[in-house]
Amino acid sequence: MKYLKIHTLEKGWHDRDEIMLHAVFQILVDFVEQEKPDEIVDWNADDTYKRAWREICELYKWWKTKRPARKSPLDDKRLKVPPIKFEDIPGTDHKKMVEPDKKKHAAYYKALEKHWQQEKEWHEQDQQNLHRLIEIRPYLWT
Fold first, then answer.
1. For the chain, where are the E strands, in sequence order?
2. Which residue in 35, 63, 85, 128 could disulfide with 98, CB within 3.0 to 4.6 Å?
């Protein structure tokens, strides 16, 4: 029986879409690093194999180096994060969160907006590269 250990996910809960992305790219990483297809397969046999190998290499490089290098504006250690404060709800034992002063923490909220825009772009990039990998699935053999 073969198990797939996903090295890019930390222990704990992950949504299924995230697990799927990481699992599929772990299969690619295992293929490149463990099966060493560059030593076994003649990737110059024809143009389709050349294109497939080029795609395998590009996707591998993206997953191993480019994707992990992504930086969010929220990663800036100098960014002052607004404090989370709560106040009592009169007549109850409950509390509610107090909205931080958005003017006082304008830099944080600007960074947060940029972060959400980047998240959308990164999600689309992940989706496109997942599709690219699925397209070359027939070539992931040795």
1. 85-88, 95-98
2. 85
**Which residue's entry shows tokens 């024809």?**
46
Q: What is the mean pLDDT of the chain?
A: 96
Using CA atoms, how far apart are residues 8 and 4, in angstroms rounded to an integer? 12
Q: Are 87 and 95 in contact (CB under 8 A)?
A: yes
Cα separations (Å) of 96 from 53, 81, 86, 99?
Answer: 56, 19, 5, 9
Query: Alpha-carbon torsion 53, 59, 61, 63, what sign?
Result: negative
* 29-88 pLDDT tens trace: 999 999 999 999 999 999 999 999 999 999 999 999 999 999 999 999 999 999 999 999
